[in-house]
């Protein structure tokens, strides 16, 4: 009886020192994934979130409505930081001077876009129409 216990203990000790290759592979992949995640978070913290808001405005659609025209636009923030109170201005030149319209978007997070609209009495499709982001505040 004592001999069989000794033999079992020796076999158990010998097999306990051997770690299967699949376990090593899984551990290595887990370590690699964890390092990639921490590296990406660190890189974003140092480079991306510190870049100021960069807002570009593009007209998407112009529609005739009662009393004038509606221009739907998209304001895209390609910077890393968010922008609040973003003022969008549009102008349509006319014979009596340009017609201006503006709207304020509450918040545009970094790397995202928001849509809005402006109204004009002059046709922005016929005339040279301009759209721009006039300013923002830090949230």
The overall pLDDT, averaged over residues, is 87
Q: What is the gyration radius calculated from CA atoms?
A: 31 Å
Distance between the termini: 77 Å
- Spell out the helices and strands N to C: HHEEEEEE
Number of helices: 2
Number of domains: 2
Task: Give me the count of strands.
Answer: 6
Per CATH, the superfamily of the largest domain is Immunoglobulins
Portion in beta strands: 35-45%
Could you give a short account of the major beta sheet?
3 strands, antiparallel
The structural class is alpha+beta
Specify the overall morphology: elongated
Order of the strands making up the biggest sheet:
1-2-5
Task: Using the coordinates shown, work out and report the CATH topology of the largest domain.
Answer: Immunoglobulin-like
Keywords: Membrane, Transmembrane, Transmembrane helix
Transmembrane segments: 21-46
Protein name: TIGR02588 family protein
Protein described:
The chain is an alpha+beta fold and about 140 residues long. The chain folds into 2 domains: about 1-50; about 55-135, Sandwich (Immunoglobulin-like). Helices cover about 30% and strands about 40% of the residues. It has 2 helices and 6 strands; from the N terminus they run ααββββββ. The strands form 2 sheets. It has a 3-stranded antiparallel β-sheet with strand order 1-2-5, with no helix packed on it. Strands 4-3-6 form a 3-stranded antiparallel β-sheet, with no helix packed on it. The mean pLDDT is about 85. Keywords: Membrane, Transmembrane, Transmembrane helix. It comes from Microvirga tunisiensis. This is TIGR02588 family protein.
């Amino acid at each position: 009886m004592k001999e069989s216990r000794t033999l079992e203990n020796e076999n158990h000790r010998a097999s306990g020192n051997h770690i299967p290759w699949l376990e090593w592979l899984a551990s290595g992949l887990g370590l690699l994934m964890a390092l990639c995640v921490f590296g990406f978070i660190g890189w974003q913290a140092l480079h991306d979130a510190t870049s100021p808001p960069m807002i570009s405005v593009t007209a998407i659609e112009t529609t005739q409505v009662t009393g004038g025209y509606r221009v739907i636009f998209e304001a895209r923030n390609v910077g890393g930081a968010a922008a609040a109170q973003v003022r969008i201005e549009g102008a349509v030149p006319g014979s009596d001077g340009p017609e201006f319209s503006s709207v304020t978007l509450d918040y545009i997070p970094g790397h995202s876009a928001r849509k809005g609209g402006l109204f004009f009495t002059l046709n922005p499709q016929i005339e040279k129409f301009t759209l721009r982001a006039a300013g923002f505040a830090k949230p």
